[in-house]
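Slide 14.
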Amino acid sequence: MTERSDLLNVISSKMPELSKGQKRIASFLTEHYDEAVYLTAAKLGDIAGVSESTVVRFAIELGYDGYPKLQQALEELVKNKLTASQRMKVSYERMSNNSKHLLKSVLSADAERISATIDEINYEDFDKAVGYIINARKVYIVGGRSSSALSHFLNFYLNLMRDNVVDASTGAVAETFERIYRIEENDLLIGISFPRYSTKTVQAIEYAHSRGAKTIAITDSRKSPLINSASISLITRSDMVSFVDSLVAPLSLINALLLAVSMNKKDDIAKGLDMLEDLWEEYKVYSSSIQKKYL
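Slide 15: predicted structure.
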């Protein structure tokens, strides 16, 4: 019930069964769902002229376990439409009504996202994705906006494991396409994007798909615009934390991908890493000195 049309259909179908107060809530959600995402049950009740308990009963009537679940559905509905300041407002409202210390609240929420990803991810698709990465002639990686941090991380370690890895997560759309325009059937493009979805990443995965290349989408939902052009989709939780994206669960997924690739090619990778260690030592890439403290 997270899509706009589904939510409106459910509200419409339930309308004859609702009380007068619940109908006022339903009308407000239908007309102002983008505003309702900010509201606690108490504030929504004030606006609709009903009690907080009426709002909770309304959420249950729609099929949710309680108001927080309905609010999550509203967040899912509008998260790709909210501006940065609106996202901050949603977060502020949520944190203001949370008795936990901010640090504990954020870390707990990230732990829940990882736990949810463990329960929901398709393990067969994960194994197929590992095979795609190992067997591709060339691997292209695209992640726009905040997801570029993930794409750079994936690129850094994947480059230590195999040849022909291209990080196409540049700032400009034109530069990205200049890096991927030769992609072909035996290649792989990994597209990484979360709300608000990067147009560049969506276009890149569509282009790779049109060229017959394998494509992996690392994203947050089956409703993501990356899904239609993905050979495999790896779904991992990423929710709003103020205007900052929570990328803990996606990063953990990428760590798992890298570890799986390294385990499948451990002998080849070990030889390469030994060569790199010699180079790092020769060119003093890492500091070997220990800082001394002087009184």
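Speaker note: The longest strand covers residues 214-219.
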